[in-house]
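Quick one: co-fold with phosphoenolpyruvate.
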Amino acid sequence: MRKTIIAGNWKMNMTPTQGAAFVNELKGRIDNAPCEVLLCPPAITIPAVVEAAKGSPIEVGAQEMHQAKGGAYTGKLSTDMILDAGCSFVIIGHSERRQYFGETDAGVNLKTLKALAAGLRPIVCVGETLDERDAGETMHRVSFQVWGALAGVKAEDAAKVVIAYEPVWAIGTGRTATPEQAQEVHAHIRQILTERFDAATAAEITLQYGGSVKPSNVDELMAKPDVDGALVGGASLKVEDFQRLVMFKA
Ligand code: PEP
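Sure, here it is.
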């Protein structure tokens, strides 16, 4: 059965020193976590976090990657680099990458295929803008993104993919989707995955919700049957808050 994964996306926060201090404080407090625990630091902070997390259940992921093996791509990270640094996951297609850095659905697909081929687990982010939700286009937008991201993905690799449903209007705004809204879209994604693969494969795929998840709403979100974890920005930057998320009560 699919795993529950609570992941922190630190975005452009946490120096190497701060990241290591965070992990050293967190790691003794989450031994009985009912989920996999993942931190996605900025690239330069990854080695310090990997080192500090040794011997703990904390896994580490990157926030972005390039699909090329290597070469003249100033500022980018290859999957070889990410793996060699000790990561097992990579976030792909976060809405901030789409909004500020020109990430496209086609690029998300190329990166997803490359991550899988390299042995990294992609966390593919999808979600509608407020205008799209208000126009009744949420399901259509999310379908388009999910089908596009998974083009060419083999059924045997499908369970390695994590899909994070992150309504853009809920990211960093303090405005969270209700558990019912999250469940509705997650059930829709599960249906797409059933059509794309089959029901048994779809049931193996972890679907995270992201968008202002915090200690006060994590339990009700996690209680929904198709919500298998969370991708968390702001509340992953404080040890106490992130600890509470990881120790959610379903
Ligand atoms: C995110 O960046 O993926 C996110 C969900 O941010 P926040 O939790 O701050 O809304």
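If it helps, The chain is about 40% helix and 15% strand.
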